[in-house]
Amino acid sequence: MTEWSPMTLEKLREEVRLGESQLEPTMARLWNAVRIERVKWKLSPWGDYGGGFWVVGLIGNQVLWYNDIEGGFNWSLYSAPGVIDEYWCNQDGLSHSMHQLQDRLDGKAPTYKLGPPQPIPRDEG
Predict the structure, then answer these.
(1) pLDDT digits over 58-85, tens only?
(2) Residue 69 within any structural domain of the chain
(3) How many CB atoms lie within 10 A of CB 32?
């Protein structure tokens, strides 16, 4: 079994390039409007081991980041640059993430998000 290690910048670039190749023209234009230079932001406690998560896009108070633990892009709120406020474990591709953004911009209800791992209550008896 291979132990988890943080995603390298080169692997992230490959993941983004793959996602970009699947974007239809309208979504590609939206992506070009929100994309930023890749940078790691903090998100404790889940991102502590890997030095944070790679952020790839910003719009308003929303950040698009890649969860390399779960393997997918996520939109989360942020209140201070450099710190992601919410952990999500969706395993969305870039195209799906851009469609989620377009839906929100069009005033549609937010899509389903999967939250952080939750401990399972155990019966002590």
Answers:
(1) 999 999 999 999 899 999 999 999 999 9
(2) yes
(3) 11
